[in-house]
Write a structure and sequence with these properties.
Blueprint lengths: L1 H23 L13 E4 L9 E4 L4 E6 L16 E6 L7 E3 L1 E2 L10 E8 L5 E7 L6 E8 L4 E8 L7 E8 L2 E6 L6 H9 L6 E5 L4 E5 L5 E6 L5 E6 L4 E7 L5 E8 L3 E7 L6 E6 L2 H5 L9 E7 L7 E8 L7 E7 L2 E6 L5 E4 L1
Parallel strand pairs: 6-10
Antiparallel strand pairs: 1-25, 2-3, 3-4, 4-5, 7-8, 8-9, 9-10, 11-12, 12-13, 13-14, 15-16, 16-17, 17-18, 19-20, 20-21, 21-22, 23-24, 24-25
């Protein structure tokens, strides 16, 4: 009798994990289509546009070609790229930025990106890189005349593991999110399902590197309020956004959590309104068990008055995957909207 009990208990436990996993991954959710206006796919981007950052001048940087454990890649043997797009032009096109010699371009695997402008108006692009599935932080100087990136420095640290996104605060000063403790795709999924919460947000500077926030299942995108007083962090596994206050020593205090019904990837702030835009995955099961005949969906949310007691949440864009698969980010600039994806195309809309 005892020999039968153990398999029965294991089977029951497995069934509970599967049922819980399907709920956590929104396995049955389907989106209704929403299109904000005149939208068209961006010619030249075919293998992902995972993160986007736009300068006040309207120049948009787009990271492309991410290879990530457990995610499909449409060009697994092709190095990653950084594209530039001028949103001030009436029919903007993308241009790949060349990268200076001395940088290992063959293993370039860009993920989250963030820009910084110094007092002399020099533009720097910080890129989360996963060469050989490791995590480094690459600092580039943008040469606008040559439309190129000059590699300045690679940052490595024992706390910079499984880095997803980055938010630059100053020269070599940034917040970064660690989305997983493990690096193997099967263990990464299990870690999310059993809710280990061994991940964090860290602060890095030349003088100090420290963990400043914990309590996440899988922290992903990170951005900052227009007044630089608050940080917003997306937890893709818990389907929520953490709103945190920044202290003078760069520590973070949690103020509230905004719960959603979709898995939030990257976050940006509309420079004109202060609204938060979230690139989301409505059904993560379709993302993990990729099927081109039933592709992962796309969804973009706009969150207004995020610091208030009752933020207003609206769907800006939604598609069943027939046009855009696996949306990861959205950036608004002067009534124009860019929507990026983990491994697919990118969309440009005029609002």
């Amino acid at each position: 009798m005892g020999k039968l009990v153990v398999p029965t208990l294991l089977g029951a436990a497995l069934a509970l994990i599967v049922a819980f996993g399907r709920q956590k991954l929104n396995a049955s959710r389907e989106v209704e289509p929403v299109e904000p206006g005149n939208c068209q796919l961006i010619e030249g981007i075919e293998n992902g546009s995972e993160d986007i950052d736009v300068l006040p001048s309207g120049l948009a940087f787009i990271s492309s070609g991410l290879k990530y454990p457990g995610m499909p890649s449409f060009a697994p043997d092709k190095p990653g790229q950084i594209f530039l797009m001028d949103l001030n032009k009436p029919n903007p096109h993308v241009q790949e930025l060349s990268i200076s010699n001395g940088f290992d371009k063959a293993s370039f695997n860009p993920h989250g990106i963030s820009t910084f402008i110094d007092e002399d108006h020099n533009v720097y692009l910080y890129v989360v890189n996963h060469p050989h599935m490791e995590s480094t932080l690459e600092i580039f100087k943008f040469d606008e005349q040559q439309r190129s990136l000059v590699h300045l420095k690679t940052i490595e640290h024992e706390l910079l593991k499984s880095v997803n996104d980055i938010l630059v605060l100053g020269p070599e000063q940034f917040y970064a999110t660690r989305d997983h403790y493990f690096t193997k795709s099967c263990l990464m999924l299990l870690e999310m399902l059993i809710d280990l919460r061994w991940t964090y947000v860290l602060y890095y500077s030349p003088k100090e590197v420290k963990v400043v926030a914990r309590g996440f299942n899988s922290p992903n995108g990170i951005t900052i309020s227009p007044d630089k007083k608050y940080i917003y962090v997306a937890d893709v596994a818990d389907k929520n956004i953490h709103v945190m206050k920044i202290h003078d020593n760069r520590d973070l205090t949690l103020l509230k959590v905004i719960q959603l019904d979709t898995s939030v990837d990257n976050l940006t702030v509309d420079p004109d309104t202060g609204d938060v835009l979230a690139g989301c995955h409505p059904n993560v099961m379709k993302l993990i068990l990729y099927n081109p005949k039933d592709p992962p969906q796309s969804e973009v949310l706009r969150i207004q008055d995020i610091l208030s007691e009752k933020p207003r949440i609206n769907t800006v864009y939604a598609n069943n995957g027939s046009i855009l698969q696996a949306s990861s980010v959205a950036f608004a600039y002067k009534r124009k909207l860019l929507i990026g994806t983990i491994f697919d195309k990118a969309l440009y809309c005029e609002l």
